[in-house]
Amino acid sequence: MYADLIDFDTTGKVSADIFHSEETYRRELSTVFARSWLFLAHESQLRAPGDFVTALMGEDPVIVSRQRDGGIRAVLNVCRHRGMRVCRQDSGNTKRFTCSFHGWTYDTAGELVKVPRETEGYHDRLDKKGWSLTPVTRVESYRGMVFGTWDPDAPALIDYLETARPALDSFIDTLGSDIELAGPMKWRIRGNWKMPAEGLGTDGYHAETTHASALQAIGGMAEPSRIFQYSSAAGHAAAMTDLGVTQRMHEKAGVGPSPHGTNDTVTVAHATVFPNFSFIGYSGPLRVWQPRGPEEMEVWGWVAVPAGLDAETRRQKLRGVTVSFSSSGVFECDDSENWSEIAAVGRGFVARSTPLNYQMGMGFDDPAGTDLPGFDVRTGHLFNDIGARGFYTRWAELMDGPELALTPSAPPPGANGRG
Ligand code: FES
Ligand code: FE
């Protein structure tokens, strides 16, 4: 039982093995990633019919595209002939995807429309309708953010996101509602995907130590008058604080001012939408921590910017974010070093068997800490592992639940329409 590997009732311990075990990782793919809503794209990337981006759902590659009827569909990016990756571009506009192995061709809805040598090889008896690309079971959007899930029984996206919406809405509203994404920038690092996912949800604690030199360079951490942390039974977690604090921090880092909100507007500082979608308020970095094995991940990073910025303002904003949060950003490099070292030292038999401490703030969670609605449990304190405890409680629930049921010959059912 994975629930036995965490204990937030008495000891506050988490098994170190969950960050290193191949068996745990395989199960995450068939439970956590196969049954959750996963971030795929932003609608601004898919404005015209035929616009597409490629994405990952766990380790499964998918193509997400705008259809002629205005809907958005997603299909598994794996050819039904021999399993080749069908689309090898990050994004573009097309009417057809042609597999580069033998030339099977699919339309943007995933229907198999052309097979080379169909008459000579298949004697015109190939049931092309039966060999479409596997559709992602459900695709829905929330305020331009496109998510997909393989689980036909998942709640509607709007309900799945219910306890993440205060953070997600704040992220979008602070940027001015109408946003578009720049990127993605992609890079691989050693480390388990759960570390940054829990970190962006809850771990304000690391900043003074991990980022000591970077903070010194920008004049230290700003003292918030208010900070709230949220935890949710759905696994989402966030830290909210005064916009003025976040703004001063990022202005010092060169991101530039925001025209939206006032200093005491409560806004998201950082958040994770369970399981692997994170963002940082005000400056606009978005991350998906793509799992690539128990001790490796691929980081996909975008920057959300207000739509319609003039080229120079946009360039300055992207540059400001890039120097702090990107593969070479000062803050992100600090963080990546921690995650990679944890992966390296945790391979030892004794290290993997030694539990880790998630006790911070246990028993001191204050449900009355803030008047903001939305999250199930909140605390008025920065130094609290409350978000991580919620994250791993949901994680264990899914890990101990059933794997997504699939039969190889029958793709998952579902409308695969636009929400
Ligand atoms: Fe795609 Fe053969 S693997 S056409
Ligand atoms: Fe950090």
UniProtKB/TrEMBL annotation:
Keywords: 2Fe-2S, Aromatic hydrocarbons catabolism, Dioxygenase, Iron, Iron-sulfur, Metal-binding, NAD, Oxidoreductase. InterPro entries: ARHD_Rieske_2Fe_2S, RHO_NdoB-like_C, Rieske_2Fe-2S, Rieske_2Fe-2S_sf, Ring_hydroxy_dOase_asu_C_dom, Rng_hydr_dOase-A. The keyword NAD applies. Pfam families: Rieske, Ring_hydroxyl_A. Residues 38-118 form the Rieske domain. One of its GO terms (molecular function) is dioxygenase activity. It comes from the Bacteria. CDD domains: RHO_alpha_C_NDO-like (cd08881). Belongs to the bacterial ring-hydroxylating dioxygenase alpha subunit family. This is Aromatic ring-hydroxylating dioxygenase subunit alpha. It comes from Amycolatopsis dendrobii.
